[in-house]
Backbone:
């Protein structure tokens, strides 16, 4: 049971890291013309969002529902869950495990991260292609829907679908289908662009956490 719980926690962390890497780092690298214009436009701005994620296993098992927040500015990010938080200032990454009262500190390493399943989208042009871009009505709003498909059929993340509200360019929904046919759907419950974050927002101050164990892996 403990191993399953730990796997569940790490899976949530991986999906959050994927969301941040995909939304900002990878799409800003995409300079293809027509189909990618929308993605490139919205990726240039800082944002803050809250979401509910529904994980749906492929083999009839009970799924999970969990909530979190995400903030992105340039190459900085902050992901928050009830049990853990991942913060990066673009150079250092802090992974705060709240229940264990410990923080893991690592260097930001794009090359190493690119080999991990939750960050394979760091170079969109290398790993994914735009399969389709179409419009649909979602909750009474006109939305653009972008489907990204992995070039390699053995990649862990096989398909990613973004639903973007057309007028304000807000992301409303993100779907991730993995190689095991598990579906993870992020529903944005709050979304705002052009946020001005404080200087310390993308840093982790260990002095604010009494008795915290610091595991420096740099």
Residues:
């Amino acid at each position: 049971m403990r191993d399953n719980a730990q796997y569940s926690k790490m899976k949530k962390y991986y999906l959050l890291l994927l969301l941040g890497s995909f939304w900002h780092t990878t799409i800003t690298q995409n300079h293809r013309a027509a189909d990618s214009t929308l993605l490139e436009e919205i990726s240039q701005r800082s944002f803050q969002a809250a979401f509910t994620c529904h994980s749906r296993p492929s083999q009839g098992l009970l799924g999970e529902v969990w909530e979190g927040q995400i903030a992105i500015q340039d190459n900085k990010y902050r992901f928050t869950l009830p049990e853990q938080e991942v913060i990066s200032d673009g150079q250092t990454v802090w992974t705060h495990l709240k229940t264990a009262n410990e923080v893991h500190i690592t260097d930001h390493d794009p090359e190493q991260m690119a080999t991990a399943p939750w960050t394979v989208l760091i170079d969109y042009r290398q790993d994914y292609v735009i399969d389709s871009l179409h419009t649909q009505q979602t909750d009474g709003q006109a939305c653009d829907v972008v489907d990204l498909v992995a070039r390699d059929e053995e990649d862990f993340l096989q398909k990613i679908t973004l639903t973007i509200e057309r007028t304000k360019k807000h992301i409303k929904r993100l779907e991730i289908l993995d190689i095991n046919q598990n579906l993870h759907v992020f529903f944005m419950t709050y979304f705002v662009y052009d946020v001005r974050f404080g200087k310390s927002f993308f840093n982790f101050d260990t002095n604010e956490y009494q008795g915290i164990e610091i595991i420096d892996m740099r």
User: Anything to note?
Assistant: The chain has one domain: 2-216. Residues 2-26 form the longest helix (25 residues). The two ends are 31 Å apart (CA to CA). Helices lie at 2-26, 37-43, 110-114, 124-127.
